[in-house]
Design brief:
With 249 residues, this protein is α/β, with parallel strands linked by helices. It is built from ten helices and seven strands. The protein is globular, with a radius of gyration of 17 Å.
C-alpha cells in the first residue's frame, strides 16, 4: 500500500502537549512541512521566546534557540549575520512580539534583516493566564479586562502586519489564518514564500497567523475557529500587505 501521508521529517515523534484546539500544533506542522518541501532542514535554526512558543525545541527536529521574552529578532540578527548560510526564523506570539518585543521587531524589519518571522496572533497572553495582549479585540474579555477591552482606557489592537508593511526594509508581509482547510493551505504557501525570500537574500519577511486559543477564550475548539472568522478577521483582515519580490537585499 502506498503511503500518502506521514509525519514531516522536521517534526520529532513527540505528541504535542498544547491545549485541545490550540493552533500552535497546526502551525508547527505547517512550518515543518514547508521546511521539508524546500529541503533545508539541515540548515534551519529556529528561535523561540517565553510563552507557548517556548516548547518548540521539544517538537522541531532541528536546532532551536530559546531566548528571553521579546528578544528573538536580536538573536536572529546575530545568528544570520554570523552564519549567513543558515536559514533563520523566529516563532513568536502576540504578547512577545507586539508588547515587550515591539521595538525589537520594528527595528529588525526596518533594517531589512534577512530572516523569517512567524507571528502567532491569538489575541491573548496564552501561557501566563490569559491577560490582555496588544492584539486583544475591543470588548474582548480577558483575565485583566473582565468587562471587556475598552478603547478609551486600553487603546486599540495593534495591526502588526499593516504597521510593518509601511517600512522600507521588509520584502514580504502577509496575514493568514488556521481557521479552515483553505486557510491552512494559504498559510503553508506564505511560510514557504518567506523561507524562499530569505534563501534568495531578499531581506526581512513576516507572516502573521491568526490562531485559536480555546481555553483562554472560554470556547470549544470548534467555536474558537468560528470566533476567528466572525470576530478576528474583520479586525485583522487576511492578505498580503507587502511583496517586493524583485528586491534583493
Amino acid at each position: 500500500m502506498k503511503k500518502t501521508f506521514q509525519r514531516p521529517s522536521s517534526l520529532k515523534p513527540e505528541p504535542f502537549r498544547h491545549c485541545p484546539g490550540c493552533g500552535h500544533s497546526l502551525i508547527h506542522r505547517l512550518i515543518a512541512e514547508a521546511i521539508d518541501a524546500l529541503g533545508i532542514r539541515e540548515k534551519v535554526i529556529g528561535i523561540a521566546p517565553i510563552g507557548c512558543a517556548v516548547f518548540a525545541y521539544d517538537y522541531f527536529n532541528f536546532d532551536v534557540l530559546e531566548v528571553p521574552h521579546g528578544r528573538p529578532p536580536a538573536a536572529a540578527t546575530g545568528l544570520k549575520r554570523s552564519l549567513p548560510d543558515r536559514i533563520i526564523f523566529s516563532y513568536q506570539g502576540d504578547g512577545d512580539l507586539a508588547a515587550i518585543g515591539m521595538a525589537e521587531i520594528i527595528h529588525a524589519a526596518n533594517r531589512g534583516e534577512n530572516f523569517s518571522v512567524f507571528f502567532v496572533n491569538n489575541a491573548t497572553y496564552g501561557m501566563t493566564g490569559g491577560q490582555m495582549a496588544p492584539t486583544t479585540l475591543p470588548g474582548q474579555r480577558t483575565t485583566t479586562t473582565p468587562l471587556g477591552r475598552k478603547r478609551e482606557t486600553d487603546g486599540n489592537p495593534l495591526r502588526v502586519a499593516e504597521l510593518l508593511a509601511t517600512l522600507d526594509g521588509p520584502s514580504y508581509i502577509a496575514r493568514t489564518s488556521v481557521d479552515s482547510y483553505r486557510n491552512l493551505v494559504v498559510t503553508k504557501k506564505a511560510i514557504e514564500k518567506s523561507f524562499r525570500y530569505q534563501m534568495e537574500g531578499r531581506g526581512f519577511s513576516l507572516v502573521e497567523i491568526l490562531s485559536p486559543c480555546p481555553v483562554d477564550w472560554d470556547l470549544s475548539p470548534r467555536d474558537a475557529l468560528l470566533w476567528i472568522q466572525k470576530k478576528m478577521i474583520p479586525v485583522f483582515p487576511l492578505g498580503t500587505f507587502k511583496d517586493d519580490g524583485t528586491r534583493i537585499a
